[in-house]
Amino acid sequence: MLTFVGLGLYDEDSITRAGEAAIADADAVFAEFYTSKLLGATVEDLESHHDVDIDVRDRAGVEQDPEPILEAAESGDAVFLTAGDTMIATTHVDLRLRAASRGIETRVVHGVTAQSAASSLTGLQNYRFGPATTLPFPDSHGADGLPASVTDTIEDNRDRGLHTLVFLDIKAAQDRFMTADRAAALLAAAYGDLLGVVVARAGSPEPLVVADSIESLADRTFGEPLHLLVVPGDLHAMEADALAEFGGAPNALLPDRFR
Q: At what angle are helices 148-159 and 180-191 packed, to 10 degrees?
């Protein structure tokens, strides 16, 4: 059996009880933290909390050399851990397919995701989000300006009145995390006068939500990572109220009918 377990968003207490039970029953526990990581807990914290040894795999160790994981799942109960949910904004369905092709039973124990947290904290309705995008560090995509994958997604969503969740680049192995002010600065040339919403440290005891023009967000700081940025589309009256109340959105940036 191979069980994929999402750890949630922040620390060792963010996991569900079902996830804890899966780890307690496991013969081997693996994890990756290159797609995201828990900023409120170290691997040692997780090992102590669950009383297990965790084999942390890098990208190559999951995508190119998954044999140790698959062998453990063939001979016993193996658990594979990630921050958030193991099947959201990751490529881990490939690992699950590899297991299935060898006749290994699999299941998924879900964790809270950044996407659901962004909706919950901002008050923007989840069903009014379009496709998400990821804003990479400029040195990661090697092109001038914003990648088309970012601008096309924002423009397509705005044309349909939908919100865009912008994931910010993570280089976990380097402890390098794009901050929301850096992201806003990269977006400002194209979208500076638009309303943007920063979500910082979702899942922590003290998350932060700030709504302002994107060019104004570029001049502010938002503390420790992880950060997200949302570019809202058309706003329902309750969404506008939530952004004003919980994110301090200036009235001038809200539609006239909601001021």
A: 70
